[in-house]
Structures are given as C-alpha cells and as structure tokens.
Write a structure and sequence with these properties.
6 helices; single chain; 7-stranded antiparallel beta sheet; Jelly Rolls; alpha+beta; 7 strands
Length: 190
C-alpha cells in the first residue's frame, strides 16, 4: 500500500461507502428505524422511503478511524447505526472533545447545504457503522422529487436553527459568567 493510500485509509476517504440500493431499507428495518429516529427523516411516509432508500450508503469504521477531518470539504451527513463517534475540535493546537454521539445520532448535516470546510473532526469509537446521506444525492432528489426535497431542506433548516439557538444560549451563558467574574474582580477565572 502506498503512503497516499495509507493516508486515505486512515482518513476514511477511500471509496468504501456501500450504496443501500433499492429495497435496502425495506429489507433492513433496523436501518429504517435509526434513520426515522433522526429529525431529518422522522415521519417520512412509506411511499417516500421507497423513493429515498437508494440515496443512503452504509460503511463500517474501525476504532479511531477518522470519518471526516476539520478543514476538509463537507460531503454529507451521517447517522450512527451502531457504535459511537467523537466530535473533536482544536483549541490552541490541542484536540478537545466537543461531543460524543451514540447510536441514532445524526451529524454533519451542514454539509448537505454547502461544501464549506468541516468545523470539527469526527472519529469512530470502537467498531462503528454509519449511514451516509450525501449532498449530490440530495440535490438529485430535489430535481426528481421537488416536494420531498423541499421537505428535507425545510427540516435541515429547522435542525440548524435549533442548534444555533442552543449555541447562542451557551454563548450568552458564557458571556454572563465572564461578566460576573469581571465584576467580582476574579481576573484569574477570566
């Protein structure tokens, strides 16, 4: 294996995603259960599942394998079928855990909107199986099934709006705490 191929394998960028194909979801009720538990695919009618099942891909990641890396273009979103994922950011050159996601969690959804660089790194914890849903497939769905595409885009907007509200609340709390420490002369805490 060449050094470049070894790097690709380590970064999870080899073409290892297996398309679910037609009938893939209807044959595997566990996958449909996990996906229908995500905010993006919750309450999708059965007729629409038949339309979208070919858009999903499945992949196994090994322990500590990188799913995507900070700064790389976003390609798609993921649902954890089985296993766990660490979301890691950088602070002063050090890796910092931002979140730990478990089965059923949905992440990376911003890349369904655009290909801006990832703001964090996602790493598999133990053997982890993911379902991938990629932007090119979503864009194609919007051409072939515009009503369903609009529903999914609206849900994406709702997911991102909720996450922004949570982030804004956390930022406000940090600012309040910082202001409190400044007012009390606690410069070390600042």
């Amino acid at each position: 294996m060449t050094e470049a191929n070894a790097d690709k394998k380590r970064l999870g960028t080899e073409v290892e995603w297996m398309p679910m194909g037609e009938g893939g979801l209807t044959k595997d009720s566990e996958i449909q259960r996990v996906l229908s538990g995500t905010p993006l695919f919750r309450d999708i009618p059965k007729r629409d599942w038949r339309e979208i099942e070919g858009l999903f891909h499945k992949r196994k990641f090994s322990n500590d394998e990188i799913i995507f890396e900070i700064g790389t273009p976003g390609l798609g979103a993921y649902a954890i079928l089985n296993g766990e994922v660490r979301i890691v950011g950088e602070k002063k050159g050090m890796l910092v855990d931002l979140a730990r996601l478990k089965e059923g969690a949905f992440f990376g959804e911003m890349s369904l909107i655009d290909d801006s660089p990832r703001s964090a790194t996602a790493i598999a914890v133990g053997e982890t199986y993911l379902i991938g849903f990629f932007r090119p497939q979503l864009l194609e769905l919007m051409k072939t099934r515009p009503k369903l595409g609009v529903v999914l885009m609206q849900r994406l907007a709702q997911i991102m709006a909720e996450r922004l509200r949570v982030a804004n609340q956390a930022l406000a709390e940090c600012r309040d705490e910082l202001e409190h420490h400044k007012m009390n002369g606690d410069e070390e805490a600042v």
